[in-house]
């Protein structure tokens, strides 16, 4: 029996009424036709053309989060990132956009792009490395004062107003994801105007550590992190593991579990037991030139010049 | 008092006589170096740690090297005063105070190095306010504080019998009343009597036992600052004992160096005899061989295993660069030359022992540097892959502050020896009388030996709990949804499209079915798009064309979590024919697994804000053992003080 036949038969017997109870959502009276998502701060809507628009539900200035709220994270969320090494073309937009958005000084990168080549015979590949926001974070374990902390939504943040600058977290991070404010940061007026929160990490404070924050404030508002949103290849995905979905800059939303299964997703150095929140998809069937190949991007040439060891 | 004792007293009190010209120059130059270091530190405070050569890859450098070095030589006191006291090695007596003073002063200098290394020394109180016992830094803080308290107590208790002598001499010599008063207060009214001796013996016996595990714990947890991380070259199981042996090794070298200097400066040739140097030289030789053995174990297993990052580290260590040079300086100065100088008893001389000790001090500083810096230069993700080569060489500020640390150490040591005789008078007398009488010394074993706390043992691994992400599954219930689509204004007056949504199972395949009707009549050949809302976007599920009964179907996204009630917000849109096309319709359908929305309880974990109970339990138990012993020692001193009141 064909599916349509079966369905038709079912419907006929049911007399056109769906079997079981019927939950009806009447949308006729809504002024803003569209679909709402679970977040309180923002409404996601799909227009008639299939365009995705984000409408802030509250327009007035938001009350600043309490320190307890910042430490708790967004309830019910578990943020994850997926980086598709097959799609990454090494353009470095992610690093630059992140640096711009977080006023990252030239001597450091929150998201660093590596030209990896694991052995002489294996293929080179671009390797963007944000903070992995580990579920068993070595940095957070060793912090003597709880200045760096792990939230229930998975994000590892730093409270630069509590950090004592011992740099144990930097020594403990196996991925070298952390940087330090060795000198007075010279915050821009824009950074100062926003005011400090661990969710964005600026204005910077001298003598304290910093790193990628998964754009905690953006995720709270239902917006993709800067790096993910700017990726011209759509190679970076971000989402909530609790709803089994990740979204990229192209507006594609896919099931996380299926993406990881179909593309053989993995986490970097799983053997360390840190349980990262960042997954990688292997660089097979590449969409652009690998590092060192003809036509490959030069990684981040503008920022590289300033970079210090 | 015997005539010999009088001579000893006179000779050792003579070390407190006003300094000569060379002594004043010595103190003046030390003060000058300390002043420069202080200025350098102020400069660092003003401009931040950027005045050092530390950067994001090599984020620990000379200051941490100094920290490990000075905490290391603080173990001199433990070996000489405690181990030799417990084993009742009589020859130790002239050098105990020198060793105990090294311990206290080296601990002070070492601890200050950590503060100098801090990015925010102004926030040091946060360690008390927000201290996390999961962090090895807290273990360091607690054990160094405990060691410093114990060492001060130990140094002081062993000085009590000298205080009446010092007070008497100061009074006779017309020294300032403040100094006389200080000696009298510190003396607690001690007199030579069997009862005083008994109480003092009990206090000293208890201290000499308890200080050994405390000292071991100190350098063990210092090593764990490195050993507890996952980095190549640091994550080693032998780091605790390796560091402890290294500490006693460099501590012994430090005490020999100090003995040579004090012997010369204070003319103590009659008391610091060649036999002292030769006995210490044997210990030093044994320790150098032991340290060589540990080093071999460490590097041989690393090299033989040949793991990629380990291999990179070893390449750096033994390579052609400055690190390789430092490595061979260490191997020569810290190991091979001293062993060569000390190995043959017939070849040992004061000069060769002295040379070996100084070389070991230099070599062991280099070794600590080699433990810290090369590992930071070889992270798991090679910095070179990002076009960065992490290098490090101490800046002028770091060198100045390091020079200041050494000068400060020597200055404090010198000043100590200006106030208290650097050789213990009563113990030296005891030694002489013992030798004269050729009788066994009265047992100084305390009546009650406290249980030695096994301070070195803290479980190294704890089960780590993760966030509980159990997704509660709501019993699936058949559900459907229906909605009336308002006419799209862009399309003009359109017939009211109704869309009903339901979930069915067909051929064991779950399907999401939309029924499109206009005025109750099914619409045929309409293209319907299905999607479901997620936080950052709309997840497309597919499209289908309606059949003549108005149904269009796609696969139901099995297992896709819904909201807290297990409802999924589907969005269905009629895409064609254009007459019917309109805005997407949200239809909620129950029966999906409910999304986990509760905030998970914060677990007890190493990374969490809540400390695992085994960690608090172990630390608490060890501290209780040690501080209870300190308490016992203090009660003995109180009893000693009360004897005076009664007598």
Question: Mind explaining what this structure looks like?
Answer:
The complex is a heterodimer of chains A (309) and B (647). In chain A, a hairpin with a 5-residue loop joins strand 7 and strand 8 (156-158). Chain A folds into two domains: 33-59, no CATH class; 78-306, Alpha-Beta Plaits, CATH 3.30.70. Helices cover 21% and strands 18% of the residues of chain A. In chain A, the strands form five sheets. A five-stranded mixed β-sheet of chain A has the order 13-12-11-4-14. In chain A, strands 2-3 form a two-stranded antiparallel sheet. In chain A, strands 5-6 form a two-stranded antiparallel ribbon. Chain A is of the alpha+beta class and 309 residues long. The termini of chain A are far apart. Chain B has two domains: 3-464 and 622-646, Formate dehydrogenase/DMSO reductase domain (Formate dehydrogenase/DMSO reductase fold, Up-down Bundle); 480-589, Immunoglobulin-like, CATH 2.60.40. Chain B contains 18 helices and nine strands. Chain B is elongated. The two termini of chain B are 21 Å apart. Chains A and B meet through helix 1, strand 1, strand 5, helix 4 and helix 5 of A and helix 6, helix 7, strand 1, strand 2 and strand 3 of B. Strand 1 of chain A pairs parallel with strand 1 (479-485) of chain B, so a sheet runs across the interface.
CATH architecture classification of the largest domain in chain A = 2-Layer Sandwich
Protein chains sharing the most extensive interface: A-B, 119 and 124 residues
On the 0 to 100 scale, the average pLDDT of chain A is 82
The main pleated sheet of chain B reads as: 5 strands, antiparallel
Task: Name the poorly predicted regions of chain B.
Answer: 440-479, 485-492
Give the strand order, joined by hyphens, for the main sheet of chain A: 13-12-11-4-14
Number of helices of chain B: 18
Helix content of chain B: 40-55%
Domain count of chain A: the total is 2
**What's the CATH topology label of the largest domain in chain A?**
Alpha-Beta Plaits
């Amino acid at each position: 029996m064909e599916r349509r036949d079966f369905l038709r038969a079912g419907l006929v017997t049911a007399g056109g009424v769906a079997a079981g109870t019927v939950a009806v959502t009447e949308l006729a009276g809504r002024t803003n036709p569209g679909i709402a998502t679970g977040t309180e701060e923002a409404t996601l809507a799909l227009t008639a053309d299939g365009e995705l628009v984000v409408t802030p539900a509250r327009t007035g200035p938001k009350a600043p989060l309490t320190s307890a709220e910042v430490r708790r994270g967004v309830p019910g969320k578990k943020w994850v990132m997926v980086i598709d090494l097959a799609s990454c073309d090494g353009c470095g937009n992610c690093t630059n956009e992140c640096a711009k958005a977080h006023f990252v000084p030239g001597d450091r990168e929150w998201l660093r792009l590596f030209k990896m080549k694991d052995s002489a015979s294996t293929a080179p590949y671009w390797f963007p490395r944000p903070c992995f926001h580990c579920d068993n974070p070595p940095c957070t374990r060793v912090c003597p004062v709880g200045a760096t902390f792990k939230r229930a939504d998975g994000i590892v943040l730093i409270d630069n107003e509590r950090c004592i600058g011992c740099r144990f977290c930097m020594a403990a991070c196996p991925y070298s994801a952390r940087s330090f404010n060795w000198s007075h940061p010279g915050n821009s007026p824009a950074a100062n105007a926003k005011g400090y929160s661990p969710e964005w990490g600026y204005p910077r404070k001298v003598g304290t550590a910093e790193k990628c924050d998964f754009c905690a404030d953006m995720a709270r508002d239902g917006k993709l992190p800067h790096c993910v949103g700017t990726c011209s290849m759509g190679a970076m995905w971000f989402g909530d593991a609790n709803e089994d979905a990740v979204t990229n800059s192209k507006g594609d939303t896919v099931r996380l579990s299926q993406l990881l299964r179909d593309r053989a997703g993995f986490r970097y150095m799983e053997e360390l037991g840190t349980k990262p929140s960042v997954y990688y998809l292997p660089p097979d069937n590449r969409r652009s030139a690998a590092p060192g190949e003809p036509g490959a991007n030069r990684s981040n040439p503008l920022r590289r010049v300033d970079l210090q060891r | 008092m015997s005539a010999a004792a009088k001579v000893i007293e006179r000779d050792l009190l003579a070390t407190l006589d006003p300094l000569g010209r060379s002594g004043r120059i010595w103190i003046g130059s030390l003060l000058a170096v300390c002043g420069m270091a202080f200025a350098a530190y102020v400069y660092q405070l003003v401009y931040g740690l950027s005045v050092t050569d530390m950067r994001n890859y090599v984020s620990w450098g000379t200051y941490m090297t100094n920290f490990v070095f000075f905490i290391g030589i603080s173990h001199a006191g433990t070996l000489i005063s405690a181990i030799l006291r417990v084993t009742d090695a009589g020859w130790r007596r002239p050098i105990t105070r020198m060793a105990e003073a090294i311990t206290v002063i080296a601990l002070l200098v070492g601890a200050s190095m950590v503060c100098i290394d801090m990015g925010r020394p102004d926030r040091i109180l946060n360690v008390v306010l927000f201290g996390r016992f999961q962090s090895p830094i807290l273990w360091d803080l607690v054990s160094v504080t405990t060691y410093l308290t114990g060492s001060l107590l130990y140094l002081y208790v062993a000085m009590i019998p000298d205080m009446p002598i010092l007070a008497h001499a100061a009074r006779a010599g017309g020294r300032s009343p403040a100094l006389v008063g200080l000696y009298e207060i510190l003396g607690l009214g001690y007199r030579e009597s069997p009862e005083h001796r008994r109480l003092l013996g009990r206090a000293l016996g208890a201290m000499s036992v308890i200080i050994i595990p405390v000292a071991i714990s100190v350098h063990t947890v210092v090593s764990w600052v490195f050993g507890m991380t996952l980095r190549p070259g640091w994550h080693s199981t032998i780091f605790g004992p390796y560091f402890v042996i290294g500490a006693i090794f460099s501590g012994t070298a430090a005490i020999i160096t100090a003995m040579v200097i004090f012997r010369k400066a204070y003319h103590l040739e009659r008391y610091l005899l060649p036999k002292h140097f030769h006995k210490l030289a044997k210990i030093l030789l044994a320790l150098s061989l032991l340290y060589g053995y540990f080093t071999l174990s460490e590097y041989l297993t690393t090299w033989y295993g040949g793991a990629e990052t380990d291999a990179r580290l070893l390449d750096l260590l033994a390579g052609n660069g400055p690190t390789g040079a430092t490595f061979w300086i260490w191997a020569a100065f810290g190991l091979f030359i001293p062993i060569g100088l000390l190995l043959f008893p017939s070849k040992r001389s004061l000069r060769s022992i002295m040379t070996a000790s100084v070389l070991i001090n230099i070599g062991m500083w280099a070794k600590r540097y080699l433990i810290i810096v090369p590992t930071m230069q070889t992270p798991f993700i090679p910095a070179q892959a990002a076009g960065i080569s992490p290098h490090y060489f101490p800046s002028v500020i770091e060198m100045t502050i390091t020079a200041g640390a050494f000068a400060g150490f020597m200055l404090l040591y010198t000043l100590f020896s200006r106030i208290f005789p650097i050789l213990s008078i009563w113990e030296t007398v005891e030694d002489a009388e013992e030798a004269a009488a050729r009788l066994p010394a009265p047992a100084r074993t305390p009546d009650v030996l406290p249980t030695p706390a096994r301070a070195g043992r803290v479980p190294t691994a704890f089960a780590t709990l993760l966030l509980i992400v159990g997704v509660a599954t709501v019993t699936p219930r058949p559900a459907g949804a229906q909605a009336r689509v308002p006419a799209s204004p862009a399309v003009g007056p359109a017939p009211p499209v109704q869309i009903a949504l339901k979930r069915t199972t067909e051929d064991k395949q779950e399907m999401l079915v939309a029924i499109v009707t206009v005025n109750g009549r099914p619409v045929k050949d309409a293209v319907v798009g299905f999607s479901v809302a997620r936080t950052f976007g709309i997840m497309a599920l597919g499209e289908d064309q309606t059949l003549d009964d108005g149904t269009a179907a796609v696969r139901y996204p099995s297992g896709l979590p819904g909201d807290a009630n297990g409802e999924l917000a589907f969005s269905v849109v009629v895409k064609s024919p254009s007459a019917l096309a309109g805005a997407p319709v949200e239809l909620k359908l129950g029966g999906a697994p409910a999304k986990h929305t509760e905030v998970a309880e914060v677990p007890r974990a190493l990374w969490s804000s809540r400390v695992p109970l085994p960690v608090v339990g172990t630390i608490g138990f060890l501290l209780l053992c040690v501080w209870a012993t300190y308490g016992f020692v203090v009660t003995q001193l109180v009893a000693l003080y009360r004897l005076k009141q009664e007598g």
